[in-house]
Structure formats: structure tokens, C-alpha cells
């Protein structure tokens, strides 16, 4: 029998960016918070010897143990879903800080178009532009409503960027906290080439500090050293913003946060209208506990948020046949694959150096910044050149036609190791009625509970997007004066390997209509007013950007909403 614990004001499930932000804001306001993290504790001291590519990048030291819990996937309902047994398509973080520890730090506010995508599409092109099976919807919030919360995240994290970044993105009421990162010769070439083509490049907004910084909470952090070990690694300098060096210390300093690690939440306890708390298993011992609370916050990764709701039987599961129900609806991924490699015989670059968000980017082909009238897809992609640091095990660039082994392979690998640049597009992923998450009927985790199952494949929409955007990457790469360029512009059936992106979204989407959304614009459940489900699971689709800025902005707004709810109760909208 589970041990009953003393009640708290708020219990938070998952202590990454979302959990850390909400914990910091609520504890500063005087509320008691219990934070449950299923992985182990982490701090900057854990990364003093982190430059081990094999351990972290290839053997996934910071990631979830797939032998204990994984996901199953299938392309459609006609085939059996199988478990992901080794990492490929995406990486699921584990431990304090979550994916906020191992991210690159690339920071983008979603476009105003994203939040009103259905309305804006119909206004410009008519309702017939939207394919019959595509389930795009407005988010129930506008960019202008969310903008002040973007600012909160940027000032907390010390986001670095141009004073006036993209003329094609949403307006900013306040500049980024710090100036842009250094501009390497490769980035200057990209910006010059794009400008000559009439495009609008700018410095990639970065959570890798461009200078020493003290944030509004008094947290001081040092500037980035450009070591090239960001993605899949923690930062030993604390220069990369992550929850363990920003928001979590603030919450802990208040004395109002009870942080528990190795606490794997298995269900929300509720009566169908309100939750009374959560049940969790202490993984080292197998002991079960019930944590009562006035408010329950799900702040874990997309798959975990959706899975916990389905296991708890809270909210109506999505049925793709009838398109009724909301839990599991609108799962989206990220559409990559459009890129051009530029090989140089007469230039050499220090590509072994860099930072996770050292780059230049443009929005000319993102969102609805270009005319889609005669195109067979909606939305678009950001196009960028990044210098994140090419580590030796994972990176071995050589032109096509190079043998895969032997003397010539070695010669070409050595020649082009520091003579190759990549111009790539990161595309949006739009929802379809047959893309969703549910519980797998066959496979279970180490606790005997059903795994989450994803049903997803690339659509004609995605293939057309990649085909079009690839030509744009090649135009820029050709303008950069390479000796040879090679374009990649085809997309086939989705597979769980190789690695593509960790930007999974949807499953507990937000909106203004309870029939097509699980949460309102404060991420408060329609079906249980004291349950808030936060993170990228709330996204009704995925943009041509990294998701963290929008995740963070929504988290700050949710924290404000929870504080109001604790005082007044009831629906916040």
C-alpha cells in the first residue's frame, strides 16, 4: 500500500525548464511546492570532465534508460508498433534539468502566424488550402499576449542576440538580455551570401552567454568558451542556460521547494473533476507514495505528459476514426532533410570550435512569410548555418562518391574535415488526424505499465516542403563560393533511426475549444481545473524553429495562472 504524505500547495511532475520555472515563481510568491524528478540530481560539478564524446554523445549518458521505459512507434494503424530499443530519431533526457541540460541553446520565439495558423491561412488562401486530414487549429492565445512572458524567459536565461534580430518575426518589446555571440568567418560568409540574395539573415538567438551576466534573480553566470560541447552535454561553465543553474537554485533558496529525485510518477489521483494529488514510485526501493496537493502540474516531456494522463484516465483519449477526444491528439515532429553541403578546396575553417547556438539564420521561408498560393504545402522552415563544434567521432564529412572505407576515404576525410559547411532548413510539422499518441496494448515498462505508442509518418505536405526548401539552401550555399555543393532534398517514410530531432510536440494541445484541445491558454485542463499540463505537449503544431522559447514563455504564463488559481480557484478563462 502506498504511503500517504503531508499535503502541499503544488506538486510538479518533472523538474526541467517548465518545472523549474514554475517552482521558482511559486516559491518566490510563498507557496509550498513538491518537485518530483524521476532521474537523479545534477549540478554544474557533474560536468567538470564532460568532454567525453563517446560517453555522452554516443552512449547517451544523460538520456532515459530505454531498457526500463521507451516508446513504441508505427507509421500507420495497419502495422504493429515496435519499441525503440536504441536511440535514433530523438533523445529523451533523464535527471534533474531534463532536456534543458543537454540542449544546444538555440532560442526562437514562434511566429505570430503560428498561434493563429488556421485563421491566418483561411484569411489569405481560403479554407480549401488546408488538406482534408490536416487538423491545424489556433492556439487560443496570440503572440502579443505571450510576448511579455518571452521577455521573462530571456532576462532569466540571459539570451544573447542582435538588438533587432529578424524583421520577419514578431516584434520584441525589449532587446535580448545580452548581445550576439561572436561571428566566425563561416557565419559571415553565410550572412553576406544571404544578403546578396535579398534575404534577411541575423545572429541566431542563443542561450549560450555571449558575456558574463547577472539575471533579475541575482544568478551570475560566466560567458561561453566556445568549446563545442553543448548538444548532449552539460555545461561545466554554466554558460549554457539550464534549469540547474538558473531557476532551480532560486526555488531552493526560498526553502519552499521540496525536491525529490528518483520519483517516478505513475498516475494522477482524481475524482473525474479535480485532482487530489499524484502517486509515485521511488525507483531505487520500489516503494510507492501518494503526494496530496491543491494543484497538480505535469511538466515532463511530451510522451510522459500524455502517458500519465492516459494511465490516470484523466481527459478523453483521442480517437482518430471519429476525431473525438483530445489526449494524444495532434502529435507532431520536426521536418528536416532540406540541406546543402558546401565543400571548399581553397579555404579552411575552425569547425571543431563553436557553441550550440553559434549560428546565423533567416526567416524568409518560415511560417507564411512567403506566398504559398502555388505551393503544395503550408508553413515553412528557418534556414541557418551553425557552428556547433564538429566532434571527431560523429563527424566525418566527404563529398558523395567517396568510398566508405580505405585509403581514399581516409584522404578525403582528412582533406574536408575542416573544409565543409552546411546550410540547412528546419521545417515545421503540421498535424494530421492519423498522427497521434496512445497507450501500447502489448509493451510495458519496468513497472508493468503500458508504454506510450506514437503513430506517425511524413506526409506529402512534408515532402513538398523539403523539396522546395532544399533549393533555397542550395542558392545560399552556391552564393558562398564553395568549390562544390551537394543538395539533399528528398524525404521518404519516417523511421525511428537515424537521429533527426528531439523536437516532439502535441498530445495535450491548447486551444479555445474543449472539443479540440485538452488545456486552455493557461495550460489548465478543461476536465480538471486544478491540473495544469505544460511543455511542448501543449503545442497544436510544431513551427520551423526549436521549441524551448515557446515552452518557457508558456511556463511563465502558467505560473502566473496557478498563483491566481490558488487564490481564487475556478477556470482561468
Provide a descriptive summary of the structure in words:
By secondary structure, the protein is α/β, with parallel strands linked by helices. 23% of the residues lie in helices and 19% in strands. The strands form 5 sheets. Strands 1, 2, 3, 9, 10, 11, 12 and 22 form an 8-stranded mixed beta sheet that branches. Strands 6-15-16-17-14-20 form a 6-stranded antiparallel beta sheet. Strands 5-4-19-18 form a 4-stranded mixed beta sheet, with helices on one face. Helix 1 runs parallel beside helix 8, helix 1 (17-28) packs parallel to helix 12 (548-568) and helix 6 crosses helix 12 (548-568). The longest helix is centred in the C-terminal third of the chain and has 21 residues, at 548-568. The protein has helices at 17-28, 53-58, 99-102, 112-115, 117-125, 143-157, 185-196, 247-253, 302-312, 407-416, 460-479, 548-568; strands spanning 3-4, 8-13, 33-36, 71-74, 82-83, 202-203, 213-214, 220-221, 257-260, 263-270, 275-282, 287-298, 329-332, 339-343, 359-362, 381-386, 420-427, 436-444, 450-455, 484-488, 505-507, 531-533. The chain is globular. The mean pLDDT is 97. It has a domain at 1-41 and 58-159 and 241-314 and 521-573: FAD/NAD(P)-binding domain (3-Layer(bba) Sandwich), CATH 3.50.50.60. The protein is built from 12 helices and 22 strands.
Amino acid at each position: 500500500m502506498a504511503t500517504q504524505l503531508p499535503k502541499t500547495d503544488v506538486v510538479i511532475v518533472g523538474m526541467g525548464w517548465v518545472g523549474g520555472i514554475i517552482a521558482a515563481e511559486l516559491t518566490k510568491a510563498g507557496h509550498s511546492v513538491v518537485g518530483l524528478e524521476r532521474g537523479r540530481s545534477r549540478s554544474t560539478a557533474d560536468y567538470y570532465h564532460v568532454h567525453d564524446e563517446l560517453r555522452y554523445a554516443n552512449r547517451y549518458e544523460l538520456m532515459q534508460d530505454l531498457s526500463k521505459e521507451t516508446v513504441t512507434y508505427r507509421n500507420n494503424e495497419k502495422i504493429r508498433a515496435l519499441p525503440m530499443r536504441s536511440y535514433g530519431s530523438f533523445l529523451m533526457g533523464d535527471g534533474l534539468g531534463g532536456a534543458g541540460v543537454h540542449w544546444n541553446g538555440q532560442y526562437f520565439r514562434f511566429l505570430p502566424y503560428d498561434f493563429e495558423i488556421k485563421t491566418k491561412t483561411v484569411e489569405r488562401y481560403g479554407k480549401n488550402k488546408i488538406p482534408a486530414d490536416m487538423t491545424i487549429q489556433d492556439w487560443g492565445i496570440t503572440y502579443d499576449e505571450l510576448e511579455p512572458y518571452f521577455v521573462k524567459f530571456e532576462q532569466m536565461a540571459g539570451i544573447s542576440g542582435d538588438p533587432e534580430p529578424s524583421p520577419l518575426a514578431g516584434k520584441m518589446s525589449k532587446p535580448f538580455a545580452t548581445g550576439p555571440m561572436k561571428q566566425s568567418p563561416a557565419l559571415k560568409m553565410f550572412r553576406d551570401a544571404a544578403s546578396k540574395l535579398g534575404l534577411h539573415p541575423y545572429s541566431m538567438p542563443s542561450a549560450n552567454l555571449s558575456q558574463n551576466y547577472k539575471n533579475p534573480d541575482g544568478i551570475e553566470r560566466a560567458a561561453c568558451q566556445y568549446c563545442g560541447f553543448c548538444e548532449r552535454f552539460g555545461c561545466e561553465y554554466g554558460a549554457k542556460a539550464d534549469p540547474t543553474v538558473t531557476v532551480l537554485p532560486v526555488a531552493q533558496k526560498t526553502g519552499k521547494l521540496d525536491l525529490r529525485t528518483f520519483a517516478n510518477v505513475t498516475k494522477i489521483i482524481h475524482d473525474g473533476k479535480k485532482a487530489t494529488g499524484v502517486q509515485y514510485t521511488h525507483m531505487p526501493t520500489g516503494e510507492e507514495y501518494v503526494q496530496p496537493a491543491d494543484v497538480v502540474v505535469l511538466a515532463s516531456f511530451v510522451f510522459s505528459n500524455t502517458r500519465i494522463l492516459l494511465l490516470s484516465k484523466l481527459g478523453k483519449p483521442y480517437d482518430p476514426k471519429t476525431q473525438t477526444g483530445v489526449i494524444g491528439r495532434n502529435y507532431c515532429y520536426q521536418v528536416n532533410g532540406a540541406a546543402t553541403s558546401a565543400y571548399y578546396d581553397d579555404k579552411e575553417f575552425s569547425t571543431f570550435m563553436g557553441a550550440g547556438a553559434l549560428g546565423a539564420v533567416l526567416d524568409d521561408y518560415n511560417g507564411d512569410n512567403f506566398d504559398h498560393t502555388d505551393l503544395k504545402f503550408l508553413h515553412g522552415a528557418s534556414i541557418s548555418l551553425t557552428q556547433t563544434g564538429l566532434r571527431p567521432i560523429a563527424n566525418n564529412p566527404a563529398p558523395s562518391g567517396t568510398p566508405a572505407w580505405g585509403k581514399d576515404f581516409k584522404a578525403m576525410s582528412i582533406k574536408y574535415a575542416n573544409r565543409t559547411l552546411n546550410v540547412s532548413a528546419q521545417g515545421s510539422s503540421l498535424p494530421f488526424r492519423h498522427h497521434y499518441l496512445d497507450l501500447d496494448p502489448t509493451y510495458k515498462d519496468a513497472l508493468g505499465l503500458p508504454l506510450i505508442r506514437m503513430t506517425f509518418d511524413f506526409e506529402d505536405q512534408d515532402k513538398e516542403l523539403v523539396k522546395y526548401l532544399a533549393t533555397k539552401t542550395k542558392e545560399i550555399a552556391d552564393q558562398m563560393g564553395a568549390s562544390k555543393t551537394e543538395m539533399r532534398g528528398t524525404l521518404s517514410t519516417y523511421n525511428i533511426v537515424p537521429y533527426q530531432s528531439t523536437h516532439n510536440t502535441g498530445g495535450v494541445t491548447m486551444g479555445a475549444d474543449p472539443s479540440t484541445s485538452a488545456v486552455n491558454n493557461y495550460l489548465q485542463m478543461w476536465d480538471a481545473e486544478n491540473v495544469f499540463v505544460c511543455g511542448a505537449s501543449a503545442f497544436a503544431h510544431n513551427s520551423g524553429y526549436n521549441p524551448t522559447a515557446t515552452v518557457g514563455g508558456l511556463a511563465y504564463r502558467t505560473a502566473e495562472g496557478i498563483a491566481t488559481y490558488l487564490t481564487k480557484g475556478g477556470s482561468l478563462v
